[in-house]
Amino acid sequence: MFNIPFLDLPPLRAALGTVTLPGSKSISNRILLMAALAEGRTEIHGLLAADDTQVMLESLRTLGVQWTRDGDTVTVDGMGGRVPQAQADLFLGNAGTAMRPLAAALALMAARYGGDYQLRGVPRMHERPIRDLVDALRGLGCQVDCLAQAGYPPLRLTGPSSLHLDTPVRVRGDVSSQFLTALLMALPLVAQRDVVVEVEGELISKPYIDITLALLGRFGVRVQRDGWQRFTIPAGSRLQSPGRIHVEGDASAASYFIALGALAALGEPLRIEGVGSDALQGDVRFADAAAAMGADIRLEPNALLVQRGRWPLRGIEWDCIAIPDAAMTLAVMALFADGPSKLTGIGSWRVKETDRIAAMATELRKLGATVDEGPDWIRVEPLREWRPASIRTYDDHRMAMCFSLAALNPLGGHGAAPVRIEDPACVAKTYPDYFETFFGLVQADAADVPVICIDGPTASGKGTLADELAQALGFWVLDSGALYRATAWAALQAGLDLNDEAAVAPLAATLPLRFAGGQVYLGEENVTEALRQEAVGLGASTVAALPAVRQALHALQLGFRRVPGLVADGRDMGTAIFPDAPLKVFLTASAAQRAQRRHKQLIFKGVSANIEGLLADLEARDLRDKTRSASPLKPAQDARLLDNSDLTIEASVDQVLAWWADQRPF
Ligand SMILES: Nc1ncnc2c1ncn2[C@@H]1O[C@H](COP(=O)(O)OP(=O)(O)O)[C@@H](O)[C@H]1O
Ligand SMILES: Nc1ccn([C@H]2C[C@H](O)[C@@H](COP(=O)(O)OP(=O)(O)O)O2)c(=O)n1
């Protein structure tokens, strides 16, 4: 996950590949709660691993429910209708799918068996209304206190108290369907007699109720439904574990990839696995809206294949009442259309993680779009002249994910503008690996992918600086020295003369080199430590003087220039490999300082060394690197010089980040 202040996406031009969706958030949390309330043990496969499910799992543990995790399988021992802990204080972050159903279940259990539970969350959670659920629970006879403001969390649920199950429970359906879901999941706990729930007002997000009913069915509870107004939980209903259950892929998350396919899968379709024609989730209906805009979509039972159909996309007017979450993606797709698009039925956006209508309008305008909004609609004009924009995400995962699509702007007219996503880690709510997955599918012109070059002599701190910069910006790193070191090491292993160009170059051309998890592998062998030896560094300097070796490693290095960007560390990054890099730094420090740093580094690793010897080696290496004829070590003409003899690592990093910030258009 990119846990950094912002992530810059370069302009993107195409998409290709297969994505396996993470488990659905709504299904994961429903199943977790039902499994916890039920009798018996439930093995849940494909559970989403993200903030909102973590919040639910931790709450269940606090309540005394036992569970174990093995990869994406979680096994829950059901409590069989009664919470082990009679008292608990639960922190539920910003997870609506945990707050509402837990409130209902714990309120009923406190009423029936006695108890004292407090439910709280982040400040935004305390601004999300829950009055309709509170009213319904009080109507049932539960004791519910709103601890701060009436109608909002935090809540305190106490008991015992007597429940009135003989009259229908009334709940409003026009603010959030999660209130009805919460009641439907909790009421089987007290269904000694038929319990009837009546919905007041037009029920929104009906497909989510379908999911709830289908999952209750899997747990042995058959709710009778009369239209969307009246639901009966039959007397004697009890939640019973189905044994094993599989969480389907997240259909709302699928929307980003459906859009990506529609915009940028040019030759063959993007394959999206985890949802398809068999899906329970209403958000798969997003595919209809995308198809209406011109996407070419094929459905398999558990997969979607999407590629560009009509182009530009068609502007649409669409009632999004059934696809509230995925609909946000349509607002960004609308930028690529041939006419305006109007999305209606999105009043619920106003009470989500943030006021999504206001947030969407504000951020689309930053890109240059003309946007109108009303209480429950938004109208977006297509965009011809794209502006680079820094997109605020309002602690809302969906804002971050859908605005990643704006980076495809070269496809939509006069674009090729980078897009900055602020606080990209907000995707952790439902899709921690979203950006990694996205980057694995998209393609950019190499010239559009930014590279920061860090060249300089040995032990000047290039590797350290490169790693820190890459970390701060979410970029890849190329340690080009490792390629020369690996060549030297392989040549030494093979008993070759390091000056034998004809023998060493073919070795460089076919190096089975692999970087993974901060380690370097040659074939199956982990050579990370071996390559760091001083003798190998000297050998690297020798083979690096051979033009045929440099030539052999050229293409390999270019291959590291991948979305979202690269920090390249070496001797000739700015002069020979990435001459068009937008920022080149030539890093130096006095020879005495560098010898001391290397000495410290070696002593720290437990390798004995003496400073005079290191200084002599380092000066000899510098001389050879500077005076060779092939790509000698020297600053590129447009390089910034940074002498860090008297700078801390932090100060060097800050300096380069400041130079980088100056270059960016945001
Ligand atoms: N600005 C700095 N001030 C002090 N020590 C530094 C600085 N930059 C790097 N170092 C230290 O110097 C040593 C060599 O740095 P390294 O990044 O391996 O250099 P290079 O990649 O240029 O050979 C490391 O132990 C590192 O922590
Ligand atoms: N881009 C590069 C990177 C390294 N080299 C050569 C020259 C260096 O002395 C060796 C070893 O490089 P490396 O960056 O690993 O060495 P230091 O960490 O700076 O000691 O490889 C090069 O010629 N071109």
TrEMBL record:
Its EC number is 2.5.1.19, 2.7.4.25. GO terms for cellular component: cytoplasm. The active site is at D325 (proton acceptor). ATP binds at G456, P457, T458, A459, S460, G461, K462, G463, T464. Its main location: cytoplasm. Residues 17-437 form the Enolpyruvate transferase domain. It catalyses: 3-phosphoshikimate + phosphoenolpyruvate = 5-O-(1-carboxyvinyl)-3-phosphoshikimate + phosphate; CMP + ATP = CDP + ADP; dCMP + ATP = dCDP + ADP. 3-phosphoshikimate binds at K25, S26, R30, S176, S177, Q178, S205, D325, K352. It is an enzyme of class 2 (transferase). It is found in: Cytoplasm. Pathway: Metabolic intermediate biosynthesis; chorismate biosynthesis; chorismate from D-erythrose 4-phosphate and phosphoenolpyruvate: step 6/7. Keywords: Amino-acid biosynthesis, Aromatic amino acid biosynthesis, ATP-binding, Cytoplasm, Kinase, Nucleotide-binding, Transferase. Pfam families: Cytidylate_kin, EPSP_synthase. One of its GO terms (molecular function) is CMP kinase activity. HAMAP family: Cytidyl_kinase_type1, EPSP_synth. Monomer. Belongs to the cytidylate kinase family. Type 1 subfamily. Catalyzes the transfer of the enolpyruvyl moiety of phosphoenolpyruvate (PEP) to the 5-hydroxyl of shikimate-3-phosphate (S3P) to produce enolpyruvyl shikimate-3-phosphate and inorganic phosphate. This is Multifunctional fusion protein. The lineage of its organism: Bacteria, Pseudomonadati, Pseudomonadota, Betaproteobacteria, Burkholderiales.
